[in-house]
Amino acid sequence: MEQGTDWREQRRRILEKARRVVVKVGSAVLTTEKGLDPRVVNRLVDQLSGLHDRGLEIVLVTSGAVAAGRCVLGAERAAGCMVHKQAASAVGQSRLMHSYDEAFAHYEKITAQVLLTKDDLRSRERFLNARNTMTRLLDWKVIPIVNENDTVAVQELKFGDNDALSAMVANLVGADVIVNLTSADGVFDDNPLENPQAAFVPCIENIAELNLQSMCRGKTGAGTGGMLSKLMAARRAASIGVPTLIVSGRQKLVLERVFNLEDLGTWIAPTQKMLSGRKFWLAYHLDPAGTIVVDDGAARALTVKGKSLLAAGVTGVDGNFGMGALVRIVRLDGGTVGVGLCNFKAAELRKIQGLSSSEIEKILGPCPHQEVVHRDNMVLDSSL
Question: Angle 96-98-100 (CA atoms, 0-180°, nearest 5)?
């Protein structure tokens, strides 16, 4: 994990010039065993209002609805299956927003509740409508408070956690930076709860090259995610040029200190080679309809040489997808290579897998494409 000499200058410059900021706060920061902690909410709102007064446009992505509902319903009712948690979220979401509303009103700030599911951002029309709404709210100096709509989101429509949601919201609003407030001081090279020798990592300059799973064993607290989910979200944000700062939300005046350029937390730099909006859409808004297994040679051709996927490198096909469907591309050992749009139906691909391009036409007849997945329609990311 090499660190250059200029990442601190990059961090200083971005934070100084930032005008639109996504702040994500998790349940591990907001809650105690008894539920939502109003003192934490008030301290957070105090800092956010201060940044707002400095001219920053703030979008708050917040967890805590389930924990707030648990406080009212009791732990037994709010635990267990998805339906119980969704019901607890329905009870807790209004209380969570009421807490924020009351706290922000003290500083004469107007807030807006924005509840999203993955389906809201997967549809281009709804994505643009959400973007227009958020832009208008920010133009009006309103502070949008965003949460996943847990009450109605079924598993396939869930973002997974609010870390992933924060990256999607950053893309939605065109944020300059994400500040992810967590219970940890930042990122370590191993789990500090299990390894006391774990070293703090002040900067990650190329998150795309890291094996995140090996760095992140265990969760950070009460929410659905952990440090792995935070780094995966940061990788998504970095791919579109948005840096992330992972920092402890329990430190005194942490947001004020961050934007006063104090050196806190772990800075995850944006990648130099950014994904286009279209490729970001493919990678993170759509769900794969099937899986293509490739041999080691094909995997190297894709990841090292930047080649398209040819039928000769395909060893297996899972699913019954149609032409043009998004598919996950995996290695023989099951590790993910990336995702892409497949030029063949699953049934056709099973007939031609392992064959050279010259043999395809003999099996299927004239084909408009020689590539199974063209490199222009592919996103390489092992975390997908």
Answer: 75
